[in-house]
Structures are given as structure tokens and as C-alpha cells.
């Protein structure tokens, strides 16, 4: 079995830097991807934006933490769904992309290619 995803899109906000309980760097990115198509009935172009929560750790997180809103990036990683108990006591689940590699596609530092940083 293989769980691998590649997304290309734009950041909707500046990267959010955090530190895990064991003092590992962590960054959270909000990545927008857009799909476009032509409506067969009207002939008009249509589109749909999907938002993805992307998380990175270690050296990749240190690089990701410098990314700002509007950056055009490519992320490669795996899809993970995890459950947790929210502050209000309810059970929640979230699906996110665990980043393995990031490449900046617009101007600025070009790439950061780090394999599988551990949490």
C-alpha cells in the first residue's frame, strides 16, 4: 500500500510555527488548491477551491515557518486522519497532509527537500 500526495497551491496565511512536546520544530500551513472546468450546459468556466491543512516537522518545519501568505508552493507528503478530544470535551477528527518535501514555486528561496522528518 502507498499513501502519497502532491499538492500545488497558494498559502492562505503565514505559516504557523509551533514546538511539539518533545521540542521538535513544527509548522502548520493552510494551502489552497483550485480545480477548474468548463460547464457543459452553459459553456462557462467554473472553479472550486479546496483548503488543505499541512503539517511539517524538524528541518522541513524550520523552512516552512518562513513561508508567508500568497507563497506558491508544492508539497509532497501523506494523508493522515487523526482523532483528538477538543477543549470542550467533544471528540474531533482532522485530516491533514504530513509534509515530507516542500518546493517554493515563486520567487524566493527555491526548494527545501528533506525526507521524512520525525515528530
Q: Can you walk through the features of this model?
A:
The chain is mainly beta and 119 residues long. The protein has a single domain, classed as Nucleic acid-binding proteins (OB fold (Dihydrolipoamide Acetyltransferase, E2P), Beta Barrel), CATH 2.40.50.140. Helix content is 6%, strand content 57%. The chain contains 1 helix and 7 strands, in the order ββββαβββ. It has one helix at 58-64; strands spanning 5-11, 16-19, 25-38, 45-57, 72-85, 91-104, 111-112. It has a 5-stranded mixed barrel with strand order 1-3-4-6-5. A hairpin with a 6-residue loop joins strand 6 and strand 7. The longest helix is centred in the middle third of the chain and has 7 residues, at 58-64. It is globular. Residues 113-119 have low confidence and may be disordered.
The spatial strand order of the largest sheet comes to 1-3-4-6-5
Counting DSSP H or I runs of 4 or more residues, the number of helices is: 1
Main pleated sheet: 5 strands, mixed, barrel
What is the name of the CATH topology? Answer: OB fold (Dihydrolipoamide Acetyltransferase, E2P)
Q: At the first level of CATH, what is the class?
A: Mainly Beta
Topology order in helix (H) and strand (E) letters: EEEEHEEE
Radius of gyration: 16 Å
The CA-CA distance between the termini, in Å, is: 22 Å
Helix content: under 10%
CATH-derived architecture = Beta Barrel
Tell me what portion of residues adopts beta-strand conformation.
over 45%
Could you say how many structural domains there are in total? 1
Structural class: mainly beta
Q: What is the number of strand segments?
A: 7
In terms of quaternary structure, the protein is single chain
Amino acid at each position: 500500500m502507498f499513501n502519497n500526495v502532491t499538492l500545488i497551491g497558494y498559502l492562505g496565511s503565514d505559516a504557523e510555527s509551533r514546538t511539539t512536546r518533545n521540542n521538535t520544530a513544527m509548522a502548520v500551513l493552510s494551502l489552497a488548491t483550485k480545480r477548474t472546468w468548463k460547464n457543459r450546459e452553459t459553456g462557462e468556466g467554473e472553479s472550486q477551491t479546496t483548503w488543505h491543512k499541512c503539517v511539517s516537522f524538524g528541518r522541513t518545519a524550520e523552512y516552512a515557518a518562513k513561508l508567508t501568505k500568497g507563497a506558491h508552493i508544492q508539497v509532497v507528503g501523506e494523508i493522515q486522519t487523526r482523532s483528538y478530544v477538543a477543549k470542550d470535551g467533544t471528540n474531533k477528527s482532522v485530516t491533514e497532509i504530513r509534509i515530507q518535501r516542500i518546493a517554493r514555486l515563486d520567487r524566493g528561496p527555491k526548494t527545501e527537500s528533506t525526507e521524512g522528518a520525525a515528530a
